[in-house]
Amino acid sequence: MSGAVRRRLALTASVAGAAIVALDGTVLLAAQPSLRRELGADLAQAQWAGTAYLVAVAALLVLAGRLGDRHGHVRLLVIGTLGFGAASAAIAFAPTAGWLIALRAVQGVFAALLQPATLALLRLTYPGDRLARPVALRTAAIGVASAAGPVLGGFLVAHLGWRSVFVINIPLALATAALALAVRTPRAPRAAAERLDAGGAALIALALAVLTGTLSQAPGRGWSAAPTLLGLLTAAAAMVAFAAHERRAGHPIVPRAVARSTPVTASMAMLLVTAAGMFGALFSATFRMQDLLGLDALAGSLRALPLTVLMVVGAPVAGAALGRHGARRTAVTGVLLAASGIAALSFPLDGWTAGAGFAVLGAGFAAVMVTATGTVVGDAPAGYAGVVGGLKQTAGNIGTALGTAVAAGLMPAVATGTSAAAPGRAADPVMFTLAALTALAVLPAALLPASRPAARKTGHGARDDLGDHGDRTVSTR
């Protein structure tokens, strides 16, 4: 199999795997009301169906990436997609809300297995100086899937019922697994030979699971509630214990070469902060459009459509900018655009500033996503492509949960001081706060490399780092 064919197959499998998870997350939104009625679920149970999934994903992303580095990313992608499809089929037959919650957690486990592999495939089949374009295409595909989800979900629920939004995952999972089986990737022998650090894996899983669950439930419980404070303290204690354990471990779950890499850590910090700002802004904007301006879900989605369009269009542009101008300039520009877009959304959302704000936010977030992904995956040694992919996606997930929780916590306080005579007309302090939060991502962005991505010896075209350790290998001559 030629190198060009191998790269195209890997890119297609990567895009398909990332898109199926993005699509599932958004089609489910349209199914929530029908699902609650048929299963007799209350609001808390419906929220836990989402929280159970998020907690499972957050807990296992890093471990899944490490397992892929040891046993082969194709293997993890196939297991993950088939398991995701099987869990989706089981959810489609869930008889009660309890079964739904449990099966969503199982689905989250398999989603965690497949996600790091979708990034690792790109790292192993593309040289460092050619990663920007495939990363941009993957980002654009996620944007398309996310935008199509509510429309597809609404159609399926209206004509076939809520269970159909899970059935649709089955053929998509089978197709993705078939693509993955056709991929041949070189692998680095180092990670395969290292012993898995079970203690470190358990500690980071505990910390991330508790943190994600706490942030997801904080808006309903309140930030000062005992369960929220206990959850945050538990997550912090587990993370401190994890850091201490990693310093002593012979083979840490997060390799020292990764933990000490400034481009990797700065990219993840930038992504976490920017994701917090963007998803917090989307949460607040959705509330303002539906509850204050009286727009239905479809009208609100259409008003926010420029964000998705600019993410899709902006991702390839950001990829080109990354290759031409380097990570630092591209990232700083993206952060400033995202912060500016959120600030524009602080003004009334029924004017032209809303469309402009969503568009600028989408363009900025596309630049941040492409730069963070390209830098994290490109800078890491090929043997650790999976674990850095898991860390990158963990940073994005924690940022999303944090931003939503912060916005939900700020909104009630702001609402008490908003003029009742003109709801939705006054400038929104929540958006200004989130814009300021997003702007802080300039600090880690400034630590990224100023030079253009350099070609690397590992991952493609380098026989000294490659070997047969789990995936079916190919000659890299």
From TrEMBL:
Domain of life of the source: Bacteria
Listed Basic and acidic residues bias regions: 461-477
Region (Disordered): 453-477
Keywords: Membrane, Transmembrane, Transmembrane helix
PROSITE patterns on file: MFS
Cellular component GO terms, alphabetical: plasma membrane
Signal sequence interval, chain numbering: none
MF terms (GO), sorted A to Z: transmembrane transporter activity
Domain Major facilitator superfamily (MFS) profile: from-to ranges: 10-453
Membrane topology per record: Multi-pass membrane protein
Keyword Membrane appears in the UniProt entry: yes
Cell location: Cell membrane
Principal location listed in the UniProt entry: membrane
Residues passing through the membrane, by range: 46-64, 76-95, 101-124, 136-158, 164-184, 196-216, 222-244, 264-284, 304-323, 330-349, 355-377, 398-418, 430-448
Protein name as annotated: EmrB/QacA subfamily drug resistance transporter
